Fold this sequence. Notes:
The chain is of the alpha/beta class.
Amino acid sequence: MKIVLIDTFALIHRAYHALPDFRTKAGEPSGAVYGFCSMFLKMVQELQPDGVVAAFDLPGKTFRHQLFSDYQSHRPEKKPDFKVQIEKIKEFLSLTEIPVVSKPGYEGDDIIGSLAGIFGKDKNKEIIILTGDNDSLQLVKPRVKVLTLKKGITETVVYDEKAVFEKFGFEPKLIPDYKALAGDSSDNIPGVPGIGPKTATQLIREFSGIENLIKAAKQNKLKPILTEKILNNAEQLRLAKDLATIRTDLEIKPDSFSFNPKALYSESALSFFKKMGFVSLLKRIRDSFGIDSLDFTSQTKQPSSDLAEADFDSVLKAIKNQKRAFIVFGGKSESTISDGSSFSFVKNAELKEILTDKDLEKIVFDLKSELRNQNNQKLIEILTGNKIWDIKIISWLVDPEFKSYQIERLARRFLGLSWQEKEINPKEKMTFEINSLVKLFEKLIEVLRRENLEKLYLEIEMPLILVLSKMEKNGILLDQKALEKTEKIFQFKLADLEKQIFQLTDKSFNLNSPKELSGVLYDKLGLPVGKIKKLKSGYYSTDSETLEKLKSQHRIINLILDWREIAKLQNTYVKALPKFIDKKDQKIHTIFLQTGTATGRLASESPNLQNIPKHVELAQEIRKLFVSSKGFSLASFDYSQIELRLAANLSGDEILKKAFSSGQDIHKLTAALVWDIPLEKVSSLDRFRAKALNFGVLYGMGARALSQTAKVSQTEAKEFIKNYFDNFAGLKKYIDETLDFLKANGYVQTRFGRKRHFPEFFSGKIQLVGQAERMALNLTIQGLAADIIKKAMIKIDQELAENQLNNQVRMILQIHDELLFEIKDEIIDKASVQIKKIMEQVYPAEVPLKVQFNQGKNWAEID
């Protein structure tokens, strides 16, 4: 018999922070309810349990608060929309006949621990704990497993005793001892000062618990500094272990625990799903239990009913009345239009009547791709000034973590709609797409508005679509004769490096083979393996990070790293560029990915022209290949230290503001302040380290990462960071306030409203929490920089159009904080002044933005 014990509150918490703020038709919050129900159905389908019990936390203090008043004190009070959804989930559990168990003064974990003990007495019962965190792993033992969420609300992992041991290096029952030593940030359980996760793991493995560790300390069997830490904190250790230990001895007698899957498709349960608008869950119930007669499409209060085909004139009339048109472009032949209730297949000539009507809102999917496919400059001009709702872009703003913004994936994700796997004809596909488009629009537009993202979409992302379309169409010219010479340069350099490497090793081997390289380095040359990771295949790692650590051991390492860098450039660009050349204009038309990052930054593909390194010798040979057209020059406009300038503005840090307003070198000034040396005595090495410090600390870089970047010891790095924050108190305050906002809300946003949720912040895992903090800080500054350059691109494009300069000034590339143009030689002086002015003034601030301008006949000349 299989019994599932649900850590209900942990699952709700995970769902609440993992999903956007979904709402029902009545405006009630539903994201956490949907997430919980989705996980419940997944559990039922995969585990097919005989019994299910849901453990719930009750409001108020527990015995742990009596033991330690600061227990969980850092957790923000739950918001009203969270509390409302708890009641909805209790309603769902009641309708599906799942017993709910709580006990005053105790947490859900204690309920689960005690139930696991009660049920576990019967050797015929297998207990599986379903949870959203790792607290319950200490309960794992024979016939008791933990099923927890690995990522989001879909990826799960099962822990038995072996899996727990592989994860921690010790048995499950010692997890409370580990938490007592290392601390637990999620519950605010204090650890021993100066003992981190790594040391805690080693001590638990060696002494099998804190009592043995305390005993060893009393007997002076530890290092003196460790003995002092343990003995000074012995009582705190015992208290922390007590706080971290799940109770297993509560007197609990559930009335019933048997589970009947039919309860999931009872009339009352189905009515609940329909009322909440969970059409995708209804479909899963139908598919899982083979209920062919389950009809939910007409009753679920979904945004719209299935569409029916009608004649063009009637659909056109309805579109004109409603002032909006749903459009699925069909390449160069037939497209589809809809008013939201019916649709019609139309020839693209007929579509022109809709496209040219600026009073009509256009709802489309991935407009930029359609414009590129049709290669129609006139269509870009027609759509300029229109209000366009692009579902792909809206989906990305609502959920920037989703990896594949294809209409079928989004329809499945948000609506539970999908077509059959077998091949379908184009008309069926277009019918599916228009149906999905309508429903997705109604669903996502509400979320967009509730998340306060509509202004960001209308003012930045929507107009940017057409700007990027023009840039893709403009392209950049490639010198194909120079490309042939460049290929020979790369071949010669690689051959020369290979010759030097083989001379040092006395043998030829495949440099692309990690196994062969490992044999040469560690066996033949005898380089020390030390802490180098041994791979499953049996040989030692030869990745770049490992080789960087071996640089001082043998001069072959630098040769290998150089060979790799040049080989990568050759394969990524020199050999690949020819296949991207358009035969009509001899240009390369890279594709800009508007939905490519969660921070709002643009990405580039086919080919990626944003990742050609600047400060690599042979990379400049590649940049020389990109040239201006006859009578034009290339012009670069690069925001100077925009992220540090934005940090000065956002934080109001007085030292940062003064440095920028006086024109001081911010990295030299940082070095002078942090190391207390006169400004004029700051060396180039000091400046290099300070630069790493400025950018690293800005995004939450720790001492270990800083030590690697700045080439200093971890002890020095820790001291650098401390001194840095002592000097830049305003910046420290801004970082702390940003992280406090993250703790309270589960997300952060830029000044323009770009938003990113971080559910992993609440995972309780130190590594994931730290990663979330770094990404959150990154969004507020780097995300803002991305918003600013997008606004500048839009403003520049508008001015070029107004002054009819599109054919003389062409925006061709965006490389993060830099814009690249092709400008007619006779107007470059005047145009550059205007472009620079727009970029510097698009975001007025106390510390103004500065732009560096350079020009030349090829890309290398303007770097």
